Amino acid sequence: MHSCARCGSSVGDAFRYCPWCAAPQRLKLVEFFRGRVGEEDKALRVSRYLHDELGERHVRFSIWTDARVEGAVSLEDDEAERLGRFLLGSAPPPRHPLRELVDRVAAIRF
Ligand SMILES: [Zn+2]
């Protein structure tokens, strides 16, 4: 049991919405990312927990293998943002389509 953040009524923990005022009790966004070639049986699940109280917000990463959780870690929002900046900042520039075509032609052995 906990108190609804909107109306203050008691709400069972299993409820996703407050039965009294319909406020969502747990906001979670989930995205799955497939493993690369050779690790197709694995996936990374990233869950962002949105909560009215800042201290409750976090991002959880879990590794799934054959539909089982192998491990998980939660990051505070600022660390998750740092991870996002690292990934975006370290991404290689997109290859020019003509460069790719030239490389393919150059690889052909006549
Ligand atoms: Zn409520």
Summarize the helices and strands and which ones pair or pack.
Blueprint: E1 2-3, E2 10-11, E3 27-34, E4 42-50, E5 58-65, E6 68-75, H1 77-90, H2 97-107
Antiparallel strand pairs: 1-2, 3-4, 4-5, 5-6
Zinc ion binds next to loops.
Radius of gyration: 22 Å
- The unreliable regions are none
Trace the largest sheet across and list its strands: 3-4-5-6
- Tally of DSSP β-strands: 6
Explain what you see:
This protein has helices spanning 77-90, 97-107; strands at 2-3, 10-11, 27-34, 42-50, 58-65, 68-75. With 110 residues, the protein is α+β, with helices and mostly antiparallel strands. A 4-stranded antiparallel β-sheet has the order 3-4-5-6. It has a two-stranded antiparallel sheet with strand order 1-2. A hairpin with a 6-residue loop joins strand 1 (2-3) and strand 2. The N and C termini lie far apart (74 Å). Zinc ion (ZN) binds at residues 4, 6-7, 9, 18, 20-21, 23.
